[in-house]
Amino acid sequence: MADLSLLQDSQEVAECLLDFVSQDELLTPLGRIDKYISSENVFNRQMVARSLLDTLRAVSEDERECVAVLEKINRLADDSEPTVRAELMEQIPHIALFILENQNLLQNQNQEQEQILPLAFSRILLPVLLRCLNDQNNLVRKTSQAALLVLLEQRVIGQWDLEQRVCPVLVDLTAPHSNDDLKTEAMAEVTERLFLPRFCEMCCDCRMFHVRKVCAASFGDMCSVVGGEATEELLLPRFYQLCSDNVWGVRKACAECFMSVSAAASPETRQNKLSALFINLISDPSRWVRQAAFQSLGQFISTFASPDCISYNPSGCQVEEAELHLAEEGGGEERAESLNPEELGQGSSSEAQMDPPGPTLELESSCVARPGQTQVEVLTAALSSLDPRFEEEAFLEPRVAPSNPCSCLEGSEQQFSHTKVSDSALCSTHEDCDSDGSDGNMNPEDDRKSRQQDVVPQALLDQYLSMTDPSRAQTVDMEIAKHCAYSLPGVALTLGRQNWHCLRDTYETLASDMQWKVRRTLAFSLHELAGILGDRITATHLLPVFNSFLKDLDEVRIGVLKHLYDFLKLLRPDTRRQYLYQLQEFLVTDNSRNWRFRSELAEQLVLLLELYSPQDVHDYLRPLAFCLCSDRVSSVRWTAYRLVTEMVRKLSSCSSLLLSFLSELVEKFGRSPKWSCRQAFAFLCQVCVEDDCVSLQNFSEYLLPALLCLASDPVPNVRVLLAKTLRQTLLQKEYFLCHQQEALEHTLLLLQTDGDKDVKYFASYHPGSTRMNEDAMSTTSSTY
Q1: 16 CB-near residues (< 8 Å, 6+ apart)
Q2: At what angle do helices 275-282 and 287-302 cross, to 10 degrees?
Q3: Is a pLDDT exceeding 70 seen at residue 75?
Q4: CB contact at 8 A, 186 and 173
Q5: SS3 358
Q6: DSSP per-residue string spanning 392-422
Q7: Hey, how many other C-beta atoms are within 10 angstroms of the C-beta on 486?
Q8: What's the rounded Cα separation, in Å, for the pair 266 and 260?
Q9: What is d(CA 528, CA 36) in angstroms, rounded to the nearest whole number?
Q10: pTM here?
Q11: 140, 263, 441, 568: which one has the fewest Cβ atoms less than 10 Å from its Cβ?
């Protein structure tokens, strides 16, 4: 009886659940929201927020129901549970984009009704979003900030709403009476008309160094947006103060954004003021500040480049910041990620981030000011929304200096003039800027003169050249030489080839550095430097380095190999031809499993075909191509097959060389004892015809007979690819229908009666004009 009663209870519960589900299914989408939005279960209310977008889509045909759903947002925004409000903020961008895409859903309604949905964002969503920016819960604030960033980037917020509603809220969040956390988070949303005065005030916030640090971190973005005049008059005085802040983290942030600030300043200010300020950061008592300054030194020097230099780049891309995107290939050549020690357990006092006592703080990596990064992105998006021209401006566009660029700085400069080096020390180098750069033993005076130039302040260049000093690695950064190598092409571009003598010794020192990462960085940028310096200097000073890199570790050689074509094409033909003998050395690697090295070699050989004569291609590149065609890795072989077909095209201009090459192709592939080579021969024939690598007459005479012989091949995979080649390629050419139709049809007839069903299928299948490269690769890649 007990079991029977338990069964009855279970049935009753099941019936109740079924009634509950059935009742739920009977509700309209809007009715379900009304039911669960009042639930005491937090999870139900979260689900309501999460399902708003789906509900809107379900009722999208009725605009008034859409508005009714949107009105529930206010109730969710007032929910006592922070997770519900945070969930709502995550949905805001999606809902806003839905509204934007469906403004004209009801084309049959009158105009007054059509205005309801577009206005819903401004009247409902935006006020809720702005209210949550000031929420007491950190999760809700962060989510609302991310939502605002998305809306700004998508340009969903109108100009009037942005200026009259969003910007005032952000300004209010940065007011002195605002919560310190809110002030730090909202700092970065700035524009000259509304936020610039408040931004300047926050740069001088005496209570919270966190605020000053976030201000310093976003200073470059600020300068880029407001332009040169506002930068000179309002921002630079504050920047000088931040560079002399008693908290090392603030000074470090200044060093990291120095290039952006310099790019927005006038040439006079850059030469006379910012240069001296940067020297102070390089000699800062804090190791972390010096480290950041040296990492930014090459970038800062690049801002002295003339507009004529900036336009250099054979590909047509502007070389912004003179970084040239060097060393971005190969996985290991991204900019070195130095440790960024931050403050742990910081209080409100600025003493909490005084200079660290020693390098032991290198292990501290807390990100207290990290939340400001999201706001920095919001800043950029907000400013771009206010001024779309911001995204189109050239980053290093020359600025017109004010009539008196230093007049607005006098008051602030007096406060920290004791920290500046004299301008005379920077300008003294202009007295003697000519040097013949001759070799031989030089006394210290001659050595000093050999470094003279008049493009950048000599003190900056001297500091840059000192980055190869071994003592710098001990006192500043173990990878300082790598940073020097990374920015060297940008510095060379700034100085110009006439001042190469200033960098020559430094370059040779870096090229022989004991750290392979330094040499690897130079190897990746060698072609860029050759383009800057010209063929004469390249032949004299870069070729020896190039030759040494060819015999270096694979980690270094890959940098040379990836840009081998780019470098060799800059050499004179007679010099370039000398390297034909050394190309075979790339087939030998430290690790035989490094197949990507050989794949890259095949890719470069395809490009090198245009640099050499047909005779050189036949004598030197042909053996390399056939060697790569027999590689153990399929990816290498497929690239080598493309190389072979391009060689056929190259040799077509010389009938004797073409005949020799095609004969060898038939012997090595068409009659090979390996079925994979015979299969590859069918594929090569197909590509040669499809890509017009060889005339159809030469193909019929030298390749077609061997191709048709594959009809009796004992391996079905070979016959399958032959059937595809005949049916999908050759029979689509009118030439073969007129001259070789009988032989082709006879071969196809044999294949159509083949014992293998796949062979019969492809021999009978008529693909129209479909190309079969992909089919061939899918057939062969699994069998190689």
Answers
A1: none
A2: 150
A3: yes
A4: yes
A5: coil
A6: GS-TTPPPPPPSSTTGGGHHHHHHSGGGSPP
A7: 26
A8: 12
A9: 63
A10: 0.62
A11: 441
